[in-house]
UniProtKB/TrEMBL annotation:
Cleaved signal peptide residues: 1-30
Species annotation: Littorina saxatilis
Cofactor: Ca(2+)
Lineage of the species this protein comes from: Eukaryota, Metazoa, Spiralia, Lophotrochozoa, Mollusca
Protein name: Sulfatase N-terminal domain-containing protein
InterPro entries: Alkaline_phosphatase_core_sf (IPR017850), ARSB (IPR047115), Sulfatase_CS (IPR024607), Sulfatase_N (IPR000917)
Amino acid sequence: MLLEQARPDKAVCRMLAFVLISLWPALVSGQLWPFGPPNIVFVLADDYGFNDVGYHGSEILTPNLDKLAGEGVKLENYYVQPICTPTRSQLMSGRYQIHTGLQHDIIWATQPNGLPLDSPTLADKLRETGYSTHAIGKWHLGFYKEDYLPTRRGFDSYYGYLTGSEDYNTHYRCDDMHDAPGGDGVDTDERMCGYDLRDNEVPVKDQLEKYSTQVFTEKAVNLIKNHEQKKPLFLYMAYQAVHSPLEVPEDYTWNYYNIQDKNRKTYAGMVSCMDEGVGNITDALKKAGMWNNTVFVFSTDNGGEILAGGNNWPLRGWKHSLWEGGMRGVGFVHSRFIQNNGTQTKELMHVSDWLPTLVGMAGGDTNGTKPLDGYNQWEMISKGKPSPRKEILHNIDIMFPPKGDNLYPDIFDTRTRAAIRVGEYKLITGDPGNSSWIPPPSTSLYFPKTSHDAPEKNVWLFHVTSDPDEEIDLSSKHPDIVKELLQRLAYYNSTAVPPVYPKSDPNCDPKLHNGFWGPWVS
Ligand SMILES: *[C@@H]1O[C@H](CO)[C@@H](O)[C@H](O)[C@H]1NC(C)=O
Ligand SMILES: *[C@@H]1O[C@H](CO)[C@@H](O)[C@H](O)[C@H]1NC(C)=O
Ligand SMILES: *[C@@H]1O[C@H](CO)[C@@H](O)[C@H](O)[C@H]1NC(C)=O
Ligand SMILES: *[C@@H]1O[C@H](CO)[C@@H](O)[C@H](O)[C@H]1NC(C)=O
Ligand SMILES: *[C@@H]1O[C@H](CO)[C@@H](O)[C@H](O)[C@H]1NC(C)=O
Ligand SMILES: *[C@@H]1O[C@H](CO)[C@@H](O)[C@H](O)[C@H]1NC(C)=O
């Protein structure tokens, strides 16, 4: 009797358990996905400037990006880091550079260095959440040991290059040997040269003379076509575009006959090609019936490089610098799950926020990571709620050559290169990098703005929400605010790990590895 009665209960229990397990991720994230967790397509552009996207008023044409951004949410108070490895490291780890040892410079191809293995990546966490995870394009988070390859960092597949830049057609790069701690000095005259393109972990030799933006787009389109939709897709599409060297098939520059500056013209063509690639990827998602269940993110990795065609007008400074031109990024999100679509937001967001945002949105958890510096911004993005973020530590680089006098020795050494955003204010110390405002080279419409800063000046305070161009330094008017922000820098500095910036290792030489850049330490 008892046993018989128990039977239907068990079945009900099993069913309830099944329902609970299937809904668990959605319940955790507070979001019920009617068709399962959405696909995530994250397009990361390289060295793409603030003034290089159509919707920021650029002379460069980006119809696909403009349309997607216009239908989605434009992130207009969004920050990345001033250079490649740091931004990518924070995207993948959700952690500030001062907590991963990557606070100085980039990872050079010749250096035995990488994003530490002690904390799972965005890809690890999405894979744990049930995603099929794929990376295409630039890695730049270390490869000296196999453990650092993207295929060992949470990606089911990878097709791309491991170093920071190379020729778009030959997929060949050369790198200097770098000094041990003390600076960016070049150690010897010897240069190491080799090919850099891999399919998963295997060197690729059959793509010579094929332009990377097209190669990577085609890979993405095929991946989407062949994607088994039992699992949601996470595609990390890290274009080589639009980093130097300035190279593009000629067709793409025809629209820009009116741009005189040769660099700007080629760069504009490179942007157009990338924009077309984004169009191809979204078309493929539509054809596969996946677009209506996709969250599409677009972001740059740092400010434009004005010496290689990029532009960040009206912002001050450019790539490499702690001025807004180095870090205020182009970024937007498109998805039909966004309630306030067709808007822009001025809520504060930082590249370290993507890990908790995307994993949280997908119904995953961030268990097992080292303490995160990022915040879950999904409610901000999708519903227009206030950002949970009040502060951004832009960086503290104790290895960067000091500048000027130590003005507040009791709080924080102001000779140190550092910057922090707290609420509406931004403080910069040390040497922030070239402080010029550079108008787009193709126009003469802009009045030149010149910096009147004394050469040894090393503290600036800006009310950056009302003065995003960083024209009015308030540091002498508001020493109290300066001290408060220096105290925040001192606090962050007390949590930092020492920078890791090893001397180049001659065993990296591609000559020793079939002519390819690749792991050299076992
Ligand atoms: C926003 O989404 C709604 C509902 O899906 C849609 O009808 C509307 O056209 C979208 N707005 C824009 C600007 O894309
Ligand atoms: C986009 O697709 C078209 C049509 O297949 C192709 O000709 C073009 O090269 C693609 N663009 C890129 C950037 O891959
Ligand atoms: C998306 O579109 C496909 C094909 O048109 C359809 O089968 C699927 O149910 C749609 N999914 C969503 C989430 O609307
Ligand atoms: C994650 O951590 C939380 C809090 O410690 C815990 O309640 C939860 O069970 C963990 N989730 C998983 C999947 O381990
Ligand atoms: C940051 O902390 C390190 C290690 O404790 C210390 O050597 C350095 O002087 C501090 N830097 C500043 C600018 O306070
Ligand atoms: C900053 O860069 C501009 C443009 O390249 C250059 O003209 C200027 O000399 C640089 N200033 C300094 C201090 O290096």
